[in-house]
Amino acid sequence: MAARVRLSAEVRRAQIVDSAIGVIADDGFAAATFARIARRAGLSSTALISYHFTDKADLMRAIVGAVFAKAYDFIRPRMDAQSSPAAILHEFIVASVEFYAAHPQAIRALTAVRGNLRRADGRPEFGPEIHDPELAQLQEFMHQAQRAGEMATFDTRVAAVSLRAALDAAALEVSRPDRTDPARYARELARLFASATGQKAVKP
Amino acid sequence: MAARVRLSAEVRRAQIVDSAIGVIADDGFAAATFARIARRAGLSSTALISYHFTDKADLMRAIVGAVFAKAYDFIRPRMDAQSSPAAILHEFIVASVEFYAAHPQAIRALTAVRGNLRRADGRPEFGPEIHDPELAQLQEFMHQAQRAGEMATFDTRVAAVSLRAALDAAALEVSRPDRTDPARYARELARLFASATGQKAVKP
Amino acid sequence: MAARVRLSAEVRRAQIVDSAIGVIADDGFAAATFARIARRAGLSSTALISYHFTDKADLMRAIVGAVFAKAYDFIRPRMDAQSSPAAILHEFIVASVEFYAAHPQAIRALTAVRGNLRRADGRPEFGPEIHDPELAQLQEFMHQAQRAGEMATFDTRVAAVSLRAALDAAALEVSRPDRTDPARYARELARLFASATGQKAVKP
Amino acid sequence: MAARVRLSAEVRRAQIVDSAIGVIADDGFAAATFARIARRAGLSSTALISYHFTDKADLMRAIVGAVFAKAYDFIRPRMDAQSSPAAILHEFIVASVEFYAAHPQAIRALTAVRGNLRRADGRPEFGPEIHDPELAQLQEFMHQAQRAGEMATFDTRVAAVSLRAALDAAALEVSRPDRTDPARYARELARLFASATGQKAVKP
DNA sequence: GATGAATGAGGTTTCATTCAT
DNA sequence: CATGAATGAAACCTCATTCAT
Fold first, then answer.
1. Same structural domain for residues D91 and D122?
2. Do A166 and A122 reside in the same domain of the chain?
3. Is the pLDDT at C41 greater than 50, yes or no?
4. Which of B118, B152, B192 lies closest to A162 in CB terms?
5. Is residue C15 part of a domain?
6. Other beta carbons less than 10 A from residue C73's beta carbon
7. CB contact under 8 A, C28 and D192
8. Same domain (yes/no): B8, B75
9. Strand locations in chain A, DSSP E?
10. Are B178 and B171 in contact (CB under 8 A)?
11. Are residues D107 and D185 in the same domain?
């Protein structure tokens, strides 16, 4: 019998979240039972999960929060370092793809949880509207670029939705075994986006 | 008590598939239990499902097949009626969005099943490679358009993946309660794609 | 492995109710888990209980209903055969004690369920008001006896409550191992009640 | 966060017992988990209960002891102040009902624990024999009253059991929201008892 | 004395599926 | 073809209790 290991709540929670991400990424949302998560994390009992999370939904929300925070911390500073709206969007694309390539499991788990988690009443915990704040952000940058003459006129909602979707697809694409080189994929996608939005000059 | 109804196997299967699509679209993949599907279909016993489908996986695959066939029958003839590669792709986009707007439940169920169904060994039944044949098709049309001088040069894989993803996102977008008018969405998306691919002239 | 036994829902439900009564009477309300009830009834799985009862509360309510019906069927006809209000109450006492002596397990289970069953919100399923209809009945007979000059004047609510309580206590008393002879206990209690209510003559 | 409070063992035990009484009275025996008791008492951990009581059964026995002692201290002196056996029994009844009216929670908890607590082997911790000493006491007073010519002859065991039961019922009756005035209830019950036992004169 | 983390047993319930009718 | 009863596995969660600090 393994010795009783005592960790701080924070560390234990992170450990459980990581284990859950692994299970979901490898075996799918439905396979993410407490028993499997506990086994993968080397916990003595599933009760330990219940001790640190009020609910299974609570654990799932923690996964979303953790992945989202990690992505934000990686991508945001690189966007902030840019000086023009078009450059910001370009960097957003490139940094996002890089992050996806670096953390394929987290992204797969995030997608699975977002698509499957439901409230007790059956309504989705994360409906399509979950993307709206981010889409609004993207649209704002596009508007700025349009006003600055960096981009042509187009429907920013359709463009933002399509860009967001293209990035989600890129996440899967760059984590395939026979995957394209992520840097090249990012470059191509950015070029495609620049062309779609009618940018005059594309970064070399 | 409802009278015992006897139907031909084919009709019964279709009824069960439809019911399952409704449950998945409304309440999610995990809620698609035999009990719920049977109740929604007005069946007296879940055994009837087991009788007509060897497996739960069998039922799920039947859903995918049914939706896919319906979409194919709607979209394919309209593509075939076009005369140039670029026009074919344009029609593909427009017809797809129209189909999504007309059958939101089917699309939502299809997405859910594709994302969640696993084989007994845990591997996904529909991995990312499921899209490959369709992507290859799209890439082929793009190549033809490029050779014909209708489109500029770009990485067709990235473009095809992104288009496929943008269409999936469109499906959700046009089935939201406060949804954009599908026809307009289709037009905007087609224009965006035309611009991204460097098409000279866009259909009015 | 035992052969699969198929029973009608009605028979199976009765079997489960009986088993549950036995467990509660022998080992208490808290011990009445599905596992123990199933084992005592020789069921292959606790799922069979869930199949026949929507809830654990549903099973508990079935116990109360079953015991109550059995007692009613035994006691009521004997009351109806009497010709005066005082004689009816006398017979009520005697028949009740006899029933308790004949079915000690059922009575103990009934008491346990009534005292412990709670609704989901925590409120008692059977509060003190559960006795009110029966108490009202008893008070009505007492009033009739008073008007007929068979009984003196007294507060019928207090008398009815006390009689009901004395009978409950009698149930325990006559089911003790070293128990008094039930017939004698019934006679003594009836005499005590007659005296308390100021009856002129007591049945010999 | 609440400051860490250090109390003497005695005070802490009493605090826990009070909290447990409250939980049992409000939500029933089954709801009396360490978690709920600790929360209601404002304790930071259930371990504190385990520290002060060897067992859950130990806590339950402490509840019974505490309530019993409180009742004894209230009722006994008033009985001792009487001069005749009949007067003692009269005062016992009146004082008991007054106590029940003043401490409804304690009584409800006492009843619940007595009815449900079991030993490890499943046998009741407080069987029907728990009442025997008190019943013997009551019977002794009745015998004395009979010898003194204050009461008629009757079976004292039946009378004592019935009186004890009538008092338990009174406890519930006077704690109902629409309750009878306890003083009046006590008077009526005492009169009923006097009449049942053939007392010559009843105290005014 | 007090605390928060950890433990393992066991609770109800739901599931897909099988079987006899 | 259809049905309702039966099955055994496994789900989440709560429990009293122990342990290290």
1. yes
2. yes
3. yes
4. B192
5. yes
6. 10
7. no
8. no
9. none
10. no
11. yes
Interface test with C, best of D125, D153, D154, D192 (most C CBs within 10 A): D192
- Strand E, nucleotides < 7 Å from a protein CB: these are 1-21
Are B197 and B145 a contacting pair, CB within 8 Å? yes
Is the four-CA dihedral C9, C10, C13, C19 of positive or negative sign? Answer: negative
* D51-to-B83, D3, D35 alpha-carbon distances in Å: 85, 19, 14
Three-state DSSP class for residue B124? strand
* Angular region, D176: left φ>0, alpha ψ -120 to 50, beta rest: beta
Say how many CA atoms lie within 13 Å of B63 toward its Cβ.
31
Q: Model's pTM, two decimal places?
A: 0.90
Residues 11-30, chain A, CB closer than 7 Å to nucleic strand E = 12
User: Is A60 domain-assigned?
Assistant: no
Cα A187 to chain center, whole Å?
A: 19
For B162, the closest chain A residue by CA position comes to: A166
CATH number at residue B8: 1.10.10
How many Å apart are CA A31 and CA A24, to the nearest integer?
A: 7
Decide if B24 contacts B36 (C-beta within 8 A): no
- Distance separating alpha carbons of residues D127 and C21, to the nearest angstrom: 18
- CA neighbor of B106 nearest in space, from B16, B17, B198, B201: B17
Report if residue C32 sits inside a domain.
yes
B1 and B44 both lie in a single domain: yes
Tell me whether residues A122 and B152 touch, CB distance under 8 A: no
pLDDT tens column, D62-76 = 999 999 999 999 999
For residue C50, give the nucleotide whose C1' atom is nearest its CA: E13
Per-residue pLDDT of C95-116, as tens digits, reads 999 999 999 999 999 999 999 9
What's the rounded mean pLDDT across residues A95-101? 95
The protein residue nearest E11 (Cα–C1') is: C33
Segment (H or E) for D112: helix D104-116
Q: How many Å from the CA of B149 to C1' of E17? A: 59
For residues C129 and C126, what is the distance between their CA atoms, to the nearest angstrom?
A: 7
Mean pLDDT of chain D: 92
Residue C4 lies in a domain: no
CATH number of the domain that residue B168 is part of: 1.10.357.10
String of DSSP letters for A86-107: HHHHHHHHHHHHHHHHH-HHHH
Instruction: Give the contacts of A113 (CB within 8 A, at least 6 positions apart).
Output: A24, A29, A60, A63, A64, A126
**Average pLDDT over all residues of chain A:** 92
DSSP C159-175: HHHHHHHHHHHHHHHTT
> Residue D37 is part of which domain span?
1-53
Please report how many Cα atoms fall inside a 13 Å half-sphere around the Cα of residue B113, on the Cβ side: 28
* Separation of alpha carbons D19 and D62, rounded Å: 12
* pLDDT grade for D3, boundaries at 50, 70 and 90: low
Residue D16 shares a structural domain with residue D88: no
Interchain contact, A112 vs B112, CB within 8 Å: no
C-chain CB neighbours of D124 within 8 Å are 28
Query: B161 vs A180: CB contact, 8 Å cut-off?
Result: no
- Cβ partners under 8 Å of residue B79, min gap 6: B88, B91, B92, B95
Question: Where are the alpha helices (H) located in chain B, listed in sequence order?
Answer: 9-27, 34-41, 47-52, 56-80, 85-102, 104-116, 132-147, 156-173, 182-196
Best of A192, A193, A197 to disrupt the B interface by mutation (most B CBs within 10 Å)? A192
**Number of separate domains in chain B:** 2
pLDDT (0 to 100) of residue D179: 77
Q: State how far the Cα of C47 lies from the Cα of B110, in Å rounded to an integer.
A: 33
Return d(Cα C99, Cα D171) in angstroms, integer.
Answer: 26
Q: Which residue has the higher pLDDT, C124 or A5?
A: C124
Mean pLDDT value across residues B139-159: 95
**Are residues C38 and C138 located together in one domain of the fold?**
no
